[in-house]
Amino acid sequence: MNLLLAEHIEKQYAHHKALDDVSIAVQKQSVFGLLGPNGAGKTTLIRIINQITAPDKGELFFNGEKLQAKHVSQIGYLPEERGLYKKMKVGEQALYLAQLKGMKKSEAREKLKIWFKRFDIYSWWDKKVEELSKGMAQKIQFITTVLHQPQLLILDEPFSGFDPINTNLLKEEILKLRNEGATIIFSTHNMESVEAICDHIALINQSKKILDGNVKEIRNSFKKNIFEITFKGNLIAFTNALWTGYELLNTKSDGDYTIAQVKTLSSNNPNELLKSVLPEVEVHGLQEILRQALRRAELDLLVGGEEMPRRRQEAGDQGHETRQQDGPEGRGGRHTGGGGRRHRARRRPARRGGRPVQAAKCGCRTPGD
Length: 369
Fold this sequence. Notes:
Layout: E1 2-13, E2 16-27, E3 31-35, H1 42-49, E4 57-62, E5 65-66, E6 75-78, H2 90-100, H3 105-118, H4 134-146, E7 152-156, H5 164-179, E8 183-188, H6 191-197, E9 200-205, E10 208-214, H7 215-222, E11 226-232, H8 235-241, E12 246-254, E13 257-264, H9 270-277, E14 282-288, H10 291-304, H11 308-313, E15 321-324, E16 332-336, E17 342-346, E18 351-352, E19 355-356
Parallel strand pairs: 3-8, 3-9, 6-7, 7-8
Antiparallel strand pairs: 1-2, 1-4, 4-5, 9-10, 11-13, 11-14, 12-13, 15-16, 16-17, 18-19
Helix pairs in contact: 2-3, 2-4, 7-10
């Protein structure tokens, strides 16, 4: 059953169409990834869900009812642009924001103590926000977003400013909240985070939804049946064992071991691959390379998102490979087409009259909401 349903949403700002016939269905007790490059329309959709702005066309439903003002109290929103009062003490501000959400001060204090101890930040209670690092302030704002236990959590780039340890901590808390009954919309342009926590995703590009569905199904539709094998033994014997039905992509040495990437041509069954090589070498590890599948989807979106559905259906997509070159943030990528010619894929801001178009910012949001 869906907690949130958005149907045929459209939004126009002057000469810029922010959303063009976008529909999403967010299932209860799930993590829904709202993905796309900067300027795609994600934040506009989030603002419409939060009733900060209204759609020009379309309807939204919350838990079976048409979205109304009363539903705002059942939504927790962590915006990408953080907003805490720098001169206030951390504990004082957290209590204030909790009370804005309708919590009693005594109840809020008790729950805040639990969260502060869980995040190992209880000693920050009497510090001013301006004394905190970006990551520390982010923890505070995450806590104030989830404290009143809303039915729907909207997290816009929640891992921004976190080191890997705190990123993993936050991922664990997000999954725990889901398992306890929360429904979460997770907005990002980073595909690596999606694989770890999302159940379903929707990809938005240039104001249109170009792809949605179950993460596992989408990932499998873009995978290339490539396996990484770690083995001991003779490399020539290993190569000869792959004479038919396989393509050896590359190998590298790691001490006494060899790590090889093998693409299956006739079957994606790893058992068949093992049967071929086990008589010749001693296998110590086998894993399918899936992580690049969603990165490939992300880069395809940047290069030409509207062709995504067609590409998914093409059975002969053999010569098309994409490789991420600038890290998980997707600042750019190298795209190899069927003819072998390479070019750089970059985001370019929309332009109006020769100048970049910037999304309008709304100043009416209460920090921590």
